[in-house]
């Protein structure tokens, strides 16, 4: 009988002793030591039921933290110190595009502020800008500037479809999107002042010319009449009567 075939690789498993920990009762002296060293809290000097009930603070102070008050104060400062505050709907966009938008707006002295509706709505409800509350429904951003740069703002937002202009408050006047576009088409303040000064200066000059036209015409007629009388040689008679006397 031939030898059986054996595999080239054989796995051998060696037995090992299992390590188990059996429960053992704690020694009596250790139990006494733990009982003696157990922490016992001291009794209060006055029983809790004898203390006055704590006063209920207003619910607003409990909810509003210091950080929320700081954000609301910043929003109030932005509305107070800015001549133009535009409310825009903000859709998700890459961070690189946000940085680019901030850069182009900052060139025209326009700052971008990301605010939460929970912060802005209580501030607007207690101010003269309460008519802007219907615009703060979704995720919004504020474009604030100490100058009225509506034309430059629209030029920048034209290339950013993720930011849609909803309305603005310019010089304490609330405008819709169409109102902002109409305001952007107006000439600058310097040009308007020049046109106003020109119009005001034109009226007095026209009035002066009208008042001087009558006396000038009368003076011209009298000079012409005197010249004709001198030419005829009869200062006391008109030219026609002198012609009839000669005949």
Number of strands: 5
Find the structural class using helix and strand composition: alpha+beta
Q: State the end-to-end distance.
A: 186 Å
Report low-confidence residues grouped into runs of 5 or more: 241-247
Radius of gyration: 48 Å
Percent of residues in beta strands: 5-15%
| CATH superfamily (homologous) name of the domain at 66-185 | Ribosomal protein L10, N-terminal RNA-binding domain
CATH class of the domain at 66-185: Alpha Beta
Query: What's the overall average pLDDT, rounded?
Result: 81
The CATH topology label of the domain at 66-185 is Alpha-Beta Plaits
Q: Given the structure, what is the number of helices?
A: 9
How much helicity do the residues have? 40-55%
Shape: elongated
Strand order of the largest sheet: 2-3-1-4-5
Biggest β-sheet strands, sense, barrel = 5 strands, antiparallel
Order of SSEs, N→C?
Answer: HHHEHEHEHEEHHH
Topology readout:
Blueprint: H1 28-36, H2 59-63, H3 66-81, E1 84-90, H4 95-107, E2 111-114, H5 117-125, E3 140-145, H6 150-157, E4 163-170, E5 173-176, H7 177-184, H8 189-232, H9 239-246
Antiparallel strand pairs: 1-3, 1-4, 2-3, 4-5
Helix pairs in contact: 3-5, 6-7
